[in-house]
């Protein structure tokens, strides 16, 4: 007895395969997350001296630098292109930062979760099909908005409205430029070297060459 696959069943199979995580996806996502976490550790120390002039210029503007804590999720998603990749990458990076030690302690994991979720939601809205610069930038904006909401609740409760507005806008812009645009450029750079040939990002670049 033979079974004939209908177009709908074939489409469902392809979608399931496209969304299913492979072992290599887990390994590479973990490597990206750990490497990003080490960058987080450096930025944990460097962020205050770098962003202090921005805060002095306009309170709330320091959130621009928050983009350096948001890129892990976006970068992981752009490489892996699977549901949950943004949340996974950001959580691994946040875990590394918390384990090594920082001034925020376990609350780092709360920030990692919300920031990763902010990017994840944007990729999900596009049904995990928009990996262009527009999708990356919007995902960075989503992570930035999530960061602003979390920070304002945890660290700036009762802040004045002007500060809330400036902080939120700055966080979104930082997310768009650093987590979004720079992660997209980094992915293209890695793909061009052939390092991502086993991933959709690498095959996409190869087709254009």
Q: What's the structural blueprint in terms of helices and strands?
A:
Layout: H1 7-19, H2 23-57, H3 71-80, H4 85-100, H5 107-125, H6 133-154, H7 161-192, H8 200-208
Helix pairs in contact: 2-3, 2-4, 3-4, 3-5, 3-6, 3-7, 4-5, 5-6, 6-7, 7-8
Transmembrane segments: 21-43, 63-80, 87-104, 110-129, 136-158, 164-186
Organism: Rhodoglobus vestalii
Keywords: Membrane, Transmembrane, Transmembrane helix
Structure report:
Keywords: Membrane, Transmembrane, Transmembrane helix. This is Energy-coupling factor transport system substrate-specific component. InterPro entries: ABC_thiamin-permease_prd (IPR017195). The chain crosses the membrane at residues 21-43, 63-80, 87-104, 110-129, 136-158, 164-186. It holds the Pfam family ABC_cobalt. The protein is an all-alpha fold. It has one domain (22-200): Orthogonal Bundle (Arp2/3 complex 21 kDa subunit ARPC3), CATH 1.10.1760. Helix content is 75%, strand content 0%. It contains 8 helices and no strands. It has helices at residues 7-19, 23-57, 71-80, 85-100, 107-125, 133-154, 161-192, 200-208. Helix 2 (23-57) packs antiparallel against helix 3 (71-80), helix 3 packs across helix 5 (107-125) and helix 3 runs parallel beside helix 7. It is globular and about 50 Å long. The N and C termini lie far apart (45 Å). The model is unreliable at 8-13 (pLDDT under 50).
